[in-house]
Specification:
Radius of gyration: 17 Å
Order of helices and strands: EEHEEEHEEHHEHEHHHH
CATH architecture: Alpha-Beta Complex
Low-confidence stretches: none
Distance between the termini: 40 Å
Largest sheet: 6 strands, mixed
CATH class: Alpha Beta
CATH superfamily: 2-enoyl-CoA Hydratase, Chain A, domain 1
Length: 249
């Protein structure tokens, strides 16, 4: 299984488990995360989930060799990026959260990160764009100019700076992100379930109110980028481990 599930009372721990590809998503992994989240949402005894990639990395995003499969009916891209969460999901991030991995973290309710964590949108270096919510969730979670910088340069944001800017809720020493996320999850699970659910529902109803339009604008940008010669060159260069030769076409 590329996504393992551990149940700790009312808390589900969802573990991305494709280490040979740094938890990069192919179609099977998208379906597996979607199924794990569907099971969590449909289980009345499950109140909070923690999503982690383990101790070495969170996720490198899309597996460029295989791609990430089609969006799922309930979860959208990666099985989570288009999902309207009905229960809290906390990301526990160690190491790299790049591209789709960063977008997955942005899709969760809160982020706990260790000092090893880095966040980035490297898509421009492949002739692509952040296709799975990064174009609008990045500027929502970060100061606009910081989000622009990340999206336009592909550079990495350190865990410390992400915490200072308010993207990361809690910062831990290396190896401590999961336990801190579990502590938060257990605290939330011990509170009134209806109040927690209704609070989350209200927040999600207000802040993503215009996301349908934002997804549409993302789709336009995605289609233009993917149809370009530069995107084919960027992916080919990445796979060949060479510098791309951009033509602007």
């Amino acid at each position: 299984m590329t996504v393992r599930v551990e149940r700790r009372g009312a808390v589900h721990v969802l573990i991305l488990d494709r280490p040979a590809r740094r938890n990069a998503f192919d179609g099977e992994m998208t379906e597996a995360l979607d199924a794990a989240l569907n099971e969590f949402e449909d289980d009345d005894s499950a109140l909070v989930a923690v999503l982690t990639g383990g101790q070495d990395f969170f996720s490198a995003g899309t597996d460029i060799r295989a791609w990430a499969g089609d969006p799922t009916e309930r979860g959208g891209p990666y099985g989570i990026a288009g999902r309207r969460l009905r229960k809290p999901v906390i990301a526990a991030v160690e190491g790299v959260a790049a591209g789709g991995g960063f977008e997955i973290a942005l899709s969760t309710t809160m982020i706990v990160a260790s000092r090893t964590a880095t966040f980035s949108f490297p898509e421009v270096g492949l002739g692509l764009i952040a296709e799975c919510g990064g174009l609008f969730r990045g500027p929502r979670a970060l100061p606009l100019n910081v989000a622009r910088e990340l999206l336009l340069t592909g550079e990495r944001l350190s865990a410390q700076r992400a915490y200072d800017l308010g993207l990361v809720n809690r910062l831990t020493e290396p190896g401590g992100a999961l336990e801190e996320a579990l502590s938060m999850a257990e605290r939330i699970a011990g509170l009134a379930p209806i109040a927690v659910r209704e609070t989350l529902r209200a927040i999600e109803a207000v802040y993503p109110a215009d996301d349908e339009d934002r997804w549409a604008e993302t789709a336009v940008a995605k289609d233009h980028a993917r149809a370009s010669a530069d995107s084919a060159e960027g992916v080919a260069a990445f796979l060949a481990k060479r510098a791309p030769q951009w033509t602007g076409r």
